[in-house]
Amino acid sequence: MGQIPVFDADVTTAAANMWARIWWDEGARNLLFATPRAPLSIETPTMELRGIYDSWPPGAFVIVYLAAMFFSIQPSIPLVNWINVTMHGLIALAAALAVFNLASMNRLGRVTSGLLALGVAFPILLSRGPIYAFSQIYDVVTAVLIFTAVFLLLEVLYYGARSQRDKWVITALQLTTIYLAFFVDWLSYTLFVFWLISRFAAGYAGVLEPMKLRRFFSLLSLPVSAFSIFLAWRFLAPGAQGAGASIKHLIRKILQRMNLTDESPITGFAKAFFEEMHEDYYSPHAFSLIAVSALVTVGLLIAAFRRARAPSERRSIFATMSFLLLITIPFYLHMIVLYQHTFIHRWAITKALFAYSMIPFALLPISVFVLVRQSNGQSKVPLPRSALAAVGLLLAGSSLFDAVSVTFYDSYAPRGRIDSNAYRMWDDIGRNTAYKDVVVSPILEANPISVQVGTAYKLVHHAGNFAEVDKVVARVCGDFNVVVALPKGSEPGEFASREPAHVIDTGRIRLLRFASYQGKAVDCPR
């Protein structure tokens, strides 16, 4: 777990560590969970100099901070990675429970439902892409999936609830879950909209009570209030740009992520998304498997719904169809609309995790069984219950076999192996330097909002000699130290012209500390 995503340019794992550590050191309430681009240091003593990254709400990173507070341990990269791995397991558990309850509602029996639930867990836990993402990349993309998984599980439980009290409790839990998700990733807003549409459709179809306009507007106030809180955070957090500049930046960021600006434009999205990303993260022809099985399943469920007469049967079939649409349309729509973001952050394809694991390996066999059961009920010579149960077991067993089969790969490391010494080297810098140390290196560099600064928890400025160091510290106020960072096997070069006051050698990096320099900035506060 002592590793960082060294094969990607994204900085999210390291940033999660940095922001949780900043809140730990400086006080989360004092900063209003602001997300600076660099940690506090003598060369960046103010929020204006540190800068703020506010494109996403900070909820995903608050989780890391709260975990650190709960366990009373300082935030670190290993902690971030353990949280990510734990979430992976909980997502699989929530998905399996959702499928178990959905299958039980459609009268498949406990054993058959259990096999289907087990089958769903395999592609979630053992597909190459999710293993890679949930072990190395903590991001808003991965963090929001636990919220969506719980939300979807609660949706299934709602359709299966028998008393009004149970429905109220489930609804309260469901709305709390999605409200928290609003502060993690924008996907939650898309999911919420389609959830409202599904509830309208359920009322129209007579499956649930029709939703009244008053209820609709009260539910609509949830995303509105959450987004208002996000805007207030952008406007009021220390180092914020101000309302006008912040809104302009947000609009431009959204347009950029839709590939509608000249900033980091991308081409070739369709091939990369529908072929390369699905196949790289899941299995060959993964998108075709999802698309074809989804279309077949929808067709079977529509046919079954039209034939159903009992209210409980119509409700269970509608719940299955609604569930299918909720795990596909919001997730894919979000990835396609913000397609520049999806293209750059390839692990965004983990949002297809539910569709890939559930539709072909659970919802399709459920829909086949429902249609077989209906046909058997209308037959003049119906099959005995044991034969019908055998059909269900055969479908579930086949699905389980297929679900396991798609998780075999030649290599489970799609980006190569992690060198944990890279993490430890940068971590050594942070552990052996303090606020008054200005760290420079002729080889290394840790810029704001980078993998390196998030891991080291310290800016590292590129400088090849003391003349270049003078330029770095030109605006430093007060006494400070210069620390030269030299990776294993490198030489000090021109820095050897002076004798350091202290030398720290961790075996991975040497730190030469030149102590007690005096700041020369002319605009220092008195």
Give the secondary structure arrangement, pairings included:
Layout: H1 12-26, H2 28-31, H3 47-50, H4 59-71, H5 77-105, H6 110-126, H7 128-136, H8 140-160, H9 164-181, H10 187-204, H11 213-236, H12 243-257, H13 269-281, H14 286-307, H15 311-326, H16 329-337, H17 339-344, H18 353-378, H19 385-405, H20 420-431, E1 437-441, H21 451-456, E2 460-462, H22 466-472, E3 479-487, E4 502-505, E5 509-518
Helix pairs in contact: 1-4, 1-5, 5-6, 5-7, 5-8, 6-18, 6-19, 8-9, 8-15, 10-15, 10-16, 14-15, 14-18, 18-19
Structure commentary:
The chain has helices at 12-26, 28-31, 47-50, 59-71, 77-105, 110-126, 128-136, 140-160, 164-181, 187-204, 213-236, 243-257, 269-281, 286-307, 311-326, 329-337, 339-344, 353-378, 385-405, 420-431, 451-456, 466-472, and strands spanning 437-441, 460-462, 479-487, 502-505, 509-518. With 526 residues, it is mainly alpha-helical. The chain folds into two domains: 77-409, no CATH class; 420-514. A five-stranded mixed sheet has the order 2-1-3-5-4, sandwiched between helices. Helix 8 (140-160) packs antiparallel against helix 15 (311-326) and helix 14 (286-307) packs parallel to helix 18.
Please give a handful of descriptors for the protein shown.
526 residues; 2 domains; 62% helix
Largest sheet: 5 strands, mixed
- Percentage of residues assigned to helices: 55-70%
Main sheet: strand order: 2-1-3-5-4
Average pLDDT level: 90
The N- and C-terminal alpha carbons lie at a distance of 46 Å
Rg from Cα: 27 Å
Main structural class: mainly alpha
Enumerate how many helices there are, as a single number. Answer: 22
Low-pLDDT stretches are 5-9
Q: Work out the number of β strands.
A: 5
Spell the H/E element sequence.
HHHHHHHHHHHHHHHHHHHHEHEHEEE
- Report the sheet-strand fraction: 5-15%
The overall number of domains is: 2
Coarse morphology: elongated
Keywords: Membrane, Transmembrane, Transmembrane helix
Transmembrane segments: 56-73, 79-103, 115-134, 140-161, 168-186, 192-209, 216-236, 286-305, 317-341, 353-372
Protein name: Glycosyltransferase RgtA/B/C/D-like domain-containing protein
